[in-house]
Amino acid sequence: MDSLTREPVDLRTHSRSRRWVVALLCALLLAGIGYAIWFWPSGSAGEAARKRNANQPIPVLVATAEAKDVPIFLDALGTVQASNTVTVKPMVDGPLLSVNFAEGQNVRKGDVLAKIDPRTYQAALDQAVAKKAQDEAQLANARLDMARYAKLVANNYTPAQQADTARAQVAQLEALVKQDQAQIDNARTQLDYTTIVAPLDGRTGMRLVDAGNIVHQSDATGMVMITQLQPISVMFTLPQQTLPQVARAMAQGPAKVLAYAQGATGSQTGVLDTGTLTVLDNQVDPTTGTIKLKATFPNPQSRLWPGAFVGVQVQVDTARDAIVVPPAAVQRGPRGAYVYVVNTADNSVVRRNVKVGHEDAQASIITEGVKAGDTVVVDGASRLNETSKVTVVQPGAPGTTPTQPAAPGTRRRQAGAPG
Fold first, then answer.
1. Fold of 58-70+320-392
2. Domain coordinates of the chain in residue numbers?
3. pLDDT of residue 409
């Protein structure tokens, strides 16, 4: 009985002890949180540290706005096409005696590419020449007969009908001689076809037939394909909204066109060749809303190759005395484009809203907000505000992160761009 009555008393004591332990732990936790809040740097010491950091000049890279003439280009992606492409085929049938070109060889117009056995065609030519000689002999005799009959008729020694018959015989033989000459010309042409020559200047492709084979005029594949590389063409398209600019540029003279290696548009080292705009298509493609254009390039070093994709820039205008800054200087926010202009007197910055007339990978034309000679921030603008102080550093100096240039080939345009 005694043991039964003591058991509940022990349980209540144990429960009270556990509650005291939990309360103590909670108190310690609250104390730790209060300590952290009280001594956190957001207090007076932390605020002072932030103010000290805020007063430190921010390193930036700068550039000077310039007034200069800027060419206005439109960007496109084009496909290189040979000016002329010819599949060389045999014009006559016969055994192929020789192939006189190497695959990938540059050839000139008139160069001998291959020869077909000419003996059959030479025999046909000889036969036609002999036939003409025979008919010419008959014609000469008929003319003598006609002259004799003409004298006899004049003296009334023979009827006029015989003279007329003689004249008709001469006319028939003259026509026969002309026919013989046509046969000779045809036979000589067939013989000439046994020597296959290059029809234009260009570069040969893969050889499609070897010497020793019998070739036919009806062969579909041909012997080799020749492509003309100099000059060469580039086909590309532009949005239909650019049609007035392109048409105006062509009306003023040959529009300059630059061809770039794919992905290197705007890079001076990426220029493959410089040409002119030669064709503006006569209609807009209604399915894509684009216009087709063709540019011609001299391609002296054969850097443009048929079938390759290239970047294309067409110069449609030139902005005279435009205010130009690097594209990295122009920032964009909810209220539009702006730049940070450095006051060199006290190294402070001023944020100015600007209007961008035209922008490409090399320069941004500012039509409002910046004047020539202003110093603008091109790197470090993300850390600036109206109260910032800056220190100008050289590119690559510690504490600066060089701004990556605009991706080659990108071109941003603003409404109301010049040109």
1. 2.40.420
2. 58-70+320-392, 74-83+229-319, 89-226
3. 38
One CATH from 3.40.50.720, 2.40.30.170, 1.10.8.420, 1.25.40.10 for 74-83+229-319: 2.40.30.170
Going by C-alpha positions, the residue among 75, 70, 86 that lies closest to residue 293 is: 75
Token pair recorded at residue 373: 């000679």
pLDDT tens figures, 271-290: 999 999 999 999 999 999 99
Predicted pLDDT of residue 15:
61
pLDDT at 11 over 80: no
Phi, psi values for residue 238, rounded to 5°: -135, 155
d(CA 161, CA 265): 88
Rounded to whole angstroms, how far apart are CA atoms 295 and 192? 37
Q: How many Cβ atoms from other residues are within 10 Å of residue 233's Cβ?
A: 22
| Cβ-Cβ contacts under 8 Å for 340 (sequence gap 6 or more) | 60, 329, 331, 349, 350, 351, 352, 376, 377, 381, 384
What is the rounded distance in angstroms from the CA atom of residue 159 to the CA atom of residue 164?
A: 9
Q: Tell me, what amino acid is at 292?
A: K
If you ran DSSP here, which 8-state letter would residue 405 be given?
P
Q: How confident is the model at residue 214 (pLDDT cuts 50, 70, 90)?
A: very high
> For residue 307, how many other CB atoms are within 10 A of its CB?
9
> Span 89-226: which CATH code?
2.40.50.100
Euclidean distance between CA atoms 400 and 379, whole angstroms = 8
The closest of 46, 73, 162 to 411, measured between CA atoms, is 73
pLDDT tens, position by position, 362-419: 788 998 989 998 999 999 888 888 888 888 887 755 544 444 443 333 343 333 333 3
Query: Cβ(108)–Cβ(198) under 8 Å?
Result: yes
- Total residue count of the chain as it appears in this document: 419
For the whole model, what pTM was predicted?
A: 0.66
Please report the pLDDT score of residue 10 as a whole number. 54
**What pLDDT sits at residue 49?**
45
Residue 70 near residue 359, CB atoms below 8 Å: no
Rg (CA), the chain: 45
